[in-house]
Write a structure and sequence with these properties.
The structure holds two protein chains of two kinds. Chain A is of the alpha/beta class. Chain A has one domain (about 1-15, about 30-175, about 180-190): Periplasmic binding protein-like II (D-Maltodextrin-Binding Protein, domain 2, 3-Layer(aba) Sandwich). Chain A is about 45% helix and about 15% strand. Chain A has eight helices and six strands. In chain A, strands 1, 2, 3, 4, 5 and 6 form a six-stranded mixed beta sheet that branches. In chain A, helix 2 packs across helix 8 (about 180-190). Chain A starts with a helix and ends with a helix. By secondary structure, chain B is mainly beta. Chain B has one domain. Chain B contains two helices and 32 strands. Classes of the chains: A alpha/beta, B mainly beta. At the A-B interface, helix 1 and helix 2 of A face strand 14 and strand 17 of B. Chain A: This is Substrate binding domain of ABC-type glycine betaine transport system.
């Protein structure tokens, strides 16, 4: 069944594409989302994947990475943190508060790395770490061009998950799988 | 006087010749990657082992009772005619640039399916129609394709077929720079247990009527950007979502039974900012509150358009579905 869903979305997306050859087929593109193996990134990745799929019809493939992506985003979308973003910039660029740092990071990465830092989720991460800072969905600019309305959809998750919501989600993943927890969360929020 | 031994040998030869002509004993026709550039007839058992193109000017005629099995070829391997990974599915497909007539009968259907022992959706790609008119798919069964029927700026009648276990049953769209406009009447089909049902893409004007569209994992009918369709007298039940909309304006959706879909009976995707009209349908209940609970529109998300479900029927539409 899962395979059918993946196939159907690629089929539906392909109908948006422009063809240039004389013999046309239809293969759509799949959106890749890289997340590390921490419970926090896993549940947030499933929330994003489920929501994007439900609201755009695009298949999202979660790519599990055993290492942190650092300041880069090796696939279409990643989850990152403002402090990580700052670490890739010059020390002179640090602001006075979280919001200012987010604005600086956002500006720097779009100009220098073609990465778009979207609306922060609302919680601070990495979860349970001392240097936690705003958690932010990050997308490659080319990916946003390829997938219409993607930025709008992801931004609807902005400020949706505060620290206590994240804590609850993490507790729930201890007894249930991240995908079901994500789906239930989105249903509770009336988003799907 | 012929000897008993010779007589028995002759008898065995005649029996073998007669048996070979029976359906169960007929030799399977193996079709490798290639172009059919003259009129061709398929009957009996056909094994497709690569991309097949029906060239412009040629017609592929498939006889009632034919079973066409697609081998699950190596992804983008040597049996693929087109290796453009962005625009072509990795497995075997048929590309119709000429014409395809696949007309089975109620008792003697034509089957398109996987050749795998344990078949799965996506074992083969699709039957793609590209800028061609006067095609017919009637009394056929389509199973285990990525998208069984793909209409690209073509005219195809899709009548009395069964679509089961495919990624998506069928989709249509117009191509730029192709003068033929897509027209794909979809009538009297059973579309069930696929990932998705029927996609109506940009610029098409297809009647979708009297179909049974049920138990598809994600959606029953998907009306998308610029797509125009008259969707009437269908049973659209027990799908993940009944009818979904993306950036569409001009479709007619009435006189259907749209009920018991798992998530929503009507769902607007992100990007459907225009209102839609879906009056005169049966929604499985006369309780307005319950009807609206199964609708994803402006009431749930400000960025979406509003769905007008007024004048809903108070009982199921009789005569909807396959007659």
């Amino acid at each position: 069944m899962r395979k059918k869903t993946a196939l159907l979305f690629s089929a539906s997306l392909c109908l948006l594409l422009t063809f240039t050859s004389t013999s046309h087929s239809c293969v759509g593109r799949i959106l890749n989302l890289t997340a590390n193996e921490s419970p926090e990134q896993q549940v947030i990745a499933h929330i994003m994947a489920t929501y994007i799929t439900e609201r755009t019809g695009t298949t999202v493939n979660i790519v599990n990475s055993s290492e942190d992506v650092g300041t880069q985003c090796p696939s279409d979308i990643c989850i990152n943190y403002v402090n990580t973003g700052l670490s890739g910039m010059s020390n002179d660029d640090q602001g006075n508060d979280d919001q200012e740092n987010y604005s600086l990071v956002k500006e720097y990465y779009i100009e220098n790395e073609n990465l778009v830092w979207l609306k922060p989720f609302g919680y601070k991460g990495p979860a349970k770490q001392q240097n936690a800072s705003m958690a932010v969905p990050v997308a490659n600019r080319e990916s946003l061009a390829k997938f219409p309305v993607l930025d709008r959809v992801i931004n609807k998750l902005g400020n949706l998950i505060d620290d206590s919501s994240l804590e609850q989600l993490l507790q729930q993943t201890e007894s249930g799988d991240a995908e079901s927890v994500a789906k239930d969360f989105l249903k509770t929020k009336n988003l799907i | 006087m012929i000897s008993k031994k010779i007589f028995l040998s002759l008898l065995a030869g005649v029996a073998a010749a007669l048996l070979i002509q029976q359906p169960g004993f007929a030799k399977e026709l193996v079709v490798n990657k290639g172009v059919l550039d003259k009129d061709t007839t398929w009957s009996g058992d056909v094994l497709v082992k690569g991309d097949v193109e029906v060239a412009k000017g040629a017609t592929l005629l498939i006889m009632p009772g034919t079973t066409v099995r697609f081998a699950k070829i190596e992804a983008f391997g040597p049996e693929k005619m087109y290796t453009d990974k962005d625009n072509h599915f990795s497995r075997a497909e048929i590309f119709v640039l000429g014409k395809l007539y696949a007309q089975g009968t109620k008792e003697n259907k034509i089957t398109f399916t996987s050749a795998e022992e344990s078949p799965a959706p996506g074992d083969w790609g699709a039957i793609n129609f590209n800028g061609t008119v006067d095609n017919l798919l009637e009394y056929c069964e389509f199973m285990y394709a990525q998208t069984a029927v793909h209409c690209h700026s073509s005219q195809i009648a899709v009548l009395h077929n069964t679509f089961k276990y495919n990624g998506t049953a069928m989709g249509s769209k117009n191509l730029p720079d192709v003068p033929v406009r897509c027209s794909m009447p979809v009538l009297y089909n059973l579309v069930t247990e696929n990932g998705g049902g029927i996609i109506i893409g940009g610029g098409t004007a297809s009647p979708v009527a009297h179909n049974e569209i049920s138990n598809n994992e994600f959606f029953g009918v998907y009306l998308k950007k610029g797509g125009r369709a008259a969707v009437r007298f269908n049973n659209i039940n027990k799908n993940g979502k009944g009818v979904i909309f993306y950036a569409t304006k001009e479709s007619l959706l009435r006189d259907n039974n749209i009920a018991d879909n798992k998530n929503y009976n009507i769902s607007m995707l992100e990007g459907q900012s225009g209102d839609i009209t879906a009056r005169n349908n049966w929604w499985g209940t006369t309780d307005e509150k319950k009807i609206l609970e199964k609708v994803m529109d402006k009431a749930r998300d400000e960025s979406l358009g509003k769905a007008d479900l007024t004048d809903f029927y108070t009982a199921p539409v009789s005569g909807a579905g396959i007659l």
